Structures are given as structure tokens and as C-alpha cells.
Amino acid sequence: xxxxxxxxxxxxxxxxxxxxxxxxxxxxxxxxxxxxxxxxxxxxxxxxxxxxxxxxxxxxxxxx
Length: 64
Hints:
Helix content: 40-55%
Largest sheet: none
Radius of gyration: 16 Å
Domain DUF1156: 10-61
Structural class: mainly alpha
Organism: mine drainage metagenome
Pfam family, one: DUF1156
Distance between the termini: 17 Å
Strand content: under 5%
InterPro entries: DUF1156 (IPR009537)
Order of helices and strands: HHH
Protein name: Protein containing DUF1156
Number of strands: 0
Number of domains: 1
Shape: elongated
Number of helices: 3
């Protein structure tokens, strides 16, 4: 049996949304605002999704 991934069980959307909004807010004088990319994605959301896809759900291994 394959174990479930963390993204299938729980994903802290509220915390990810807050981090993404903070990252995407306009900061004058910051190097990231020098050039805005056409399809810029907040890195916090991308990192959270990739991490949750790779990590097994901790509750699927209660003996560890």
C-alpha cells in the first residue's frame, strides 16, 4: 500500500495565503520590484505545494 502524501490530507492554506500576499505586496526600492515578470508566482505557495507533494503524511506512520 502506498502511503498518502501530506497534500492529500492537510495543507495550511491560510498560512500559505498570508505568506503569498506578503511576498507579492509591492515594496518600493526592493530588487524584486525592479522588473515584474508576466506570470510571476509567489514562491511561498510554490514551495509549500512542492513540499507537501514530496513528504509523506505523518499520521500514516504512527509507529515512527
